[in-house]
Design a protein that fits this description.
alpha/beta, Enolase-like, domain 1, TIM Barrel, 16 strands, 19% strand, binds 2-phosphoglycolic acid, binds zinc ion
Length: 431
């Protein structure tokens, strides 16, 4: 058994140029693993706490020296001598040491850095690829290796760009490809067609935080039309579907959803989404409503849940307790999974397993602030999650994940299969 010998931490930068935490765990047999923690912009109210220094003299207060010091101090001391391969015990210790419900004392960014780096170190010690190690460590019983359907965010709005669009993400999902590699080729080709199309419309082709374009289009419907046309021009009609992340908490003001300057009730906006969905073959809508509009979510799932995956991101914040409420109340039929919303790998895996048991679709996700760390690619395969959301086929912090999945698919050879539209099929199952 390889024991944890030491833990180091460093303040590094994410893809937006803001500080984030990196940790390295070293084991008694010399194996080591490092991890970089992501960071969001449209963060949910109920997410675990990202500890920032608040020292305005450095990085406008966004430094993470305190979190890094917590890694090298209290957290390192607590995990020294533990079996790195027992991820559940390790994470339980980290969580108990923090002692708060939202990891606010030591910081979810500090705790998650240790959790992820320990898993990597244990996989290195076992000389096993991370995806296979995670499957074994969490005793996931499946002999299937599903490569996730990529949800490629090709038009950015909301807090991720200054396109003027209220909806944060417009995604293309290659549901009918023969392999993950073919799905990525299809997504990348459509992305290039879209770029030419926008240029021809005299729109900017500069990109937003997640690598998607940020054109100043007239309306949300126009964005959907440009995407549908790009899919057809790319020769992929019928093979690619559309998906949205509204991040609607950002346009929920005074009890109304303010879309294209019009204040709408949750039931009125459901009708708008339904009309977009039927015109443009949308398979899923993430955060169509605000993070605490439980009644609205329940009504929307009753209305649209047999046609669409309604994905809770800010609603569930990868929190098994909030998810349990959503399952019980039939508030949604899918969950977005982000490691740093909850702050340990083990709690993240728990959320995925609970969701899968309830027939919810699971989508493993990046954040708008990312590093070159491709941990989520391995996690998606380990858990047979079915789908992954990690931006456009552009910007290396996004491509690190897609490229890692290409490597995993090649390594698995004939054992791998592509999930395609599986995650989005028969949403009624979840109700
Ligand atoms: P964030 O956005 O990382 O800025 O929170 C991603 C999302 O809302 O899914
Ligand atoms: Zn989201």
């Amino acid at each position: 058994m390889a024991k944890i010998e030491s833990v180091r931490a460093l303040e590094i930068l994410d893809s937006r140029g803001f500080p984030t935490v990196s940790a390295t765990v070293v084991l008694s047999d010399g194996a080591e693993g490092s991890a970089g923690v992501p960071s969001g912009a449209s963060t949910g109210e109920h997410e675990a706490v990202e500890l920032r220094d608040g020292d305005k003299a450095r990085y406008f207060g966004k430094g993470v020296r305190k979190a890094a010091a917590n890694v090298e101090g209290e957290l390192a001391k607590a995990v020294k001598g533990l079996d790195a391969a027992d991820l559940a015990a390790l994470d339980a210790k980290l969580t108990a040491l923090d002692g708060t419900p939202n990891k606010g004392r030591l910081g979810a960014n500090a705790i998650l850095a240790v959790s992820m780096a320990a898993a990597r170190a244990a996989a290195a010690s076992a000389k096993t690829p991370l995806y296979a190690f995670l499957r074994r460590a969490y005793a996931i019983k499946s002999d299937k290796w599903l490569l996730p359907a990529p949800m490629l965010n090709v038009i950015n709005g909301g807090k991720h760009a200054d396109s003027g669009l209220d909806v944060q993400e417009f995604m293309i999902v290659p549901t009918e490809a023969a392999s993950f590699g073919e799905a990525i080729r299809c997504g990348a080709e459509i992305y290039q067609v879209l770029k030419k199309k926008l240029a021809a419309m005299k729109m900017t082709t500069a990109v937003g935080d997640e690598g998607g374009f940020a054109p100043r289009l007239k309306s949300h419907l126009e964005a959907l039309e440009v995407l549908s046309a790009s899919i057809a021009e790319g020769g992929y009609q019928g093979q690619v579907r559309l998906a949205l992340d509204c991040a609607a908490s950002e346009y929920y003001k005074g009890g109304k959803y303010v879309l294209e300057s019009k204040p709408l009730s949750s039931s009125e906006i459901a009708d708008v989404y339904a009309s977009w969905a039927s015109k443009h073959g949308i398979v899923s809508i993430e955060d169509p409503l605000a993070e605490d509009d439980w009644a609205g979510w329940k009504a929307m799932t009753a209305k649209l849940g047999d046609r669409l995956r309604l994905i809770g991101d800010d609603l569930f914040v990868t929190n098994p307790a909030r998810l349990a409420r959503g399952i019980k109340e039939k508030s949604a039929n899918a969950i977005l999974i982000k490691l740093n919303q909850i702050g340990t790998l083990t709690e993240t895996v728990q959320a995925v397993r609970d969701a899968q048991k309830a027939g919810f679709a699971t989508i493993i996700s990046h954040r708008s602030g990312e590093t070159e760390d491709a941990f989520i690619a391995d996690l998606a395969v380990a858990l047979n999650a079915g789908a992954i959301k990690t931006g456009a086929p552009c910007r290396s912090e996004r491509l690190a994940k897609y490229n890692r999945l290409l490597h995993i698919e090649a390594a698995l050879g004939g054992k791998a299969s592509y999930a395609g539209g599986l995650a989005f099929a028969s949403p009624a199952r979840a109700r």
